[in-house]
Design brief:
There is one protein chain. The protein is about 15% helix and about 65% strand. With about 220 residues, the chain is mainly beta. A hairpin with a 4-residue loop joins strand 9 and strand 10. It is elongated.
Length: about 220
Amino acid sequence: MKKFLMMIAMLACITTASAQWNIGGTVGFTTTKIDAGGSDQSGSSYKIVPDIGYSINENLIVGVQLGYSSGMAAFGSLTVTDIKSAISTLAGAASDIGNDSYKLNSFTISPYIRYKLVEYGKASVAVEGYLGYNSISSDGSPTVQSSDGGSYGGDDMTFNAFEIGLRPVATFQVSDKLDILCKLGAVGFMSAKEKESDIKITRFGVNVDSYNILFGLNFHF
């Protein structure tokens, strides 16, 4: 029993000695124009995602991200166009989608675990598994006129959204204390439900587009 406890203590000491805190974050920006034959929509989106992690060893990091995004897109690839399509579906045979200009705002919390797959010199590639909760609000919503004369949308909307997935993370080590990060896309599942209506948006697949490119820095101490 004593030998077993000594082994556990030694492993704990080794893990603690090799562990390291990481503080950093990523940012993303995109500009979008949607030409829908008279119902044009254009605008930009940006994301700010602070990150704190704990390196268990040189290959494994656990952490959490807290983020904010605003603009045409929020919550991965959930965009203004998705919400327009959902409202149009509720309206039935929609004859017109109003040319409303509005944006999405999203607050995110996302714990993750990141594992280094390959390393070449100062560059490496890791895979990051994550869970996420997002609170997404819209400044108004598009107005949809249905063929029966009714209208849908126009009010502010709030979504509770959840996600799970995997994404690649490319890293370049500038120094012992600083890394440059790039995250491009994700493979996963997302589900967003509007609080006051029957609108629900779900998606599973590979998202590699301008909404999902993030660049950032990571500091070790």
